[in-house]
Design goal:
The chain has about 250 residues and is mostly helical. Helices cover about 40% and strands about 5% of the residues. The protein has a two-stranded parallel sheet with strand order 1-2. A two-stranded antiparallel ribbon has the order 3-4. The protein is flat, with a radius of gyration of 32 Å.
Length: about 250
């Protein structure tokens, strides 16, 4: 049943030890063969390679103690390292796993979108670019294949990429900075009478400025003690009594 679910799933998350995954046939190789689009989120105590690959890990061991954080939490230099009262790794580990999964899903969906924007669908089946590791390994060939960008004006690509939800931005020039609407509201800059070309000079903002009341120095201690606070049933006599008792200055 798990194999049937994995065959149509977007994500599988597991923290089983590697030997258990092999025994249950839920390792990455097995599930990836059933679903090439599957994002396999693997959580281990000590990684998937190295001498400690089979060692189980818990919050107090592989995270709190092994990381060195436990040794740093002492109330004095000679004190015993502090034991974690609550789990220290649950939240940061979960956030890191979530970020990895979302990033993988984003990359999985947006590579095909980008290729279709470029009208180069053949790249989707090119063995050099099937997966992200493939694209990294063949980065020089991929850059050459993406030369389609050079065949159209920038305005074309800005519209096509924006319409398809691709995250991008231009490599702006000084001229772009001076003319773009993203730099501020209309009227924040004007052509300088003393310069020509693309140079600009700032002028006084047209944004309304709040009227600030003039304030003096902070009052000295006790100088406002005789003032009654609004909403409080205080009187001069009561304030005087509190002052005589030394409760207020």
């Amino acid at each position: 049943m798990l194999h049937e679910l994995a065959a149509t799933a977007d994500v599988v998350v597991t923290n089983y030890p590697l030997r258990v995954r092999d025994k249950l046939r839920i390792d990455h190789a097995t599930l990836a063969a059933l679903n090439e689009r599957l994002v396999y989120a693997s959580f281990t105590g000590y990684g998937e390679q190295g001498a400690e690959v089979a060692q189980p890990g818990f919050d107090a061991t592989s995270y709190w103690a092994r990381s060195g954080m436990m040794d740093q939490v002492r109330n004095s230099y000679d004190a015993t390292p502090a034991r974690a009262v609550v789990s220290q790794s649950d939240h940061p580990s979960a956030m890191t796993m979530y970020a990895a999964i979302v990033t993988a899903l984003y990359q999985r969906e947006h590579w095909p979108v980008l290729v279709r924007c470029l009208e180069r669908e053949a790249l989707l089946t090119d063995e050099r670019f099937l997966t992200k590791p493939d694209r990294l390994r063949n980065a020089h060939d991929l850059i050459a294949a993406l030369e389609a960008f050079a065949g159209r004006e920038r305005a074309h690509w800005e519209k096509v990429l924006a319409d398809n939800g691709v995250v991008f931005d231009i490599i702006a020039t000084p001229a772009d900075i001076a003319t773009t609407s993203r730099c501020g509201p209309p009227g924040w800059r004007s052509p300088s009478r003393r310069t020509t070309g693309w140079r600009r000079s700032l002028r006084r903002s047209r944004w309304p400025m709040p009227q600030l009341s003039r304030r003096g120095c902070l009052p000295r201690s006790g100088s406002t003690a005789t003032r009654s606070s609004p909403g409080l049933a205080t009187t001069r006599d009561r304030i005087a009594a509190l002052r005589s008792a030394g409760i207020v200055a």
